[in-house]
Specification:
The protein has about 130 residues and is mainly β. It has a single domain (about 20-125), classed as Macroglobulin (MG2) domain (Immunoglobulin-like). It has strands at about 20-25, 35-45, 60-65, 70-75, 80, 85-90, 95-105, 110-120. Strands 1-2-6-5 form a 4-stranded antiparallel sheet, with no helix packed on it. Strand 3 and strand 4 form a beta hairpin. The chain is elongated and about 45 Å long.
Amino acid sequence: MDRNTNHEGHLSIHDESVQASWHLSSPNPQPNEDISVTIEIRDTNGKRLENFEISHEKQMHLIVVSKDLSFLNHIHPEYKGKGVFQVKTRLPSGGEYKLVADSVPEGVGSIAKNTWITVSGEPDRFNQIVL
């Protein structure tokens, strides 16, 4: 498989032609408290992209994974219009989490944008994945 295509053969754009701005409802997220995540998708000129294709039945997929890999969540932000997506979630314990937003802006192709966030407190050592 070509490294520039995903599993369905869609062209995957990995350049900086699209930017994501991330906003949290709290500057200091706490474990097990609701947090709203807002993602704004813009072009390099700062213009919000407004049309998104449906991919796997949704306009955006948000993967949330803890740095220690003990937590994984696949959620679907709601499209609010004008390039803005929003979702409410809870993170189980303190530590770092990577957020990966996967979408298909019309005329651009598949993109994945990511950021790290930090939740106050220590990671829950009793919630580790055991194989």
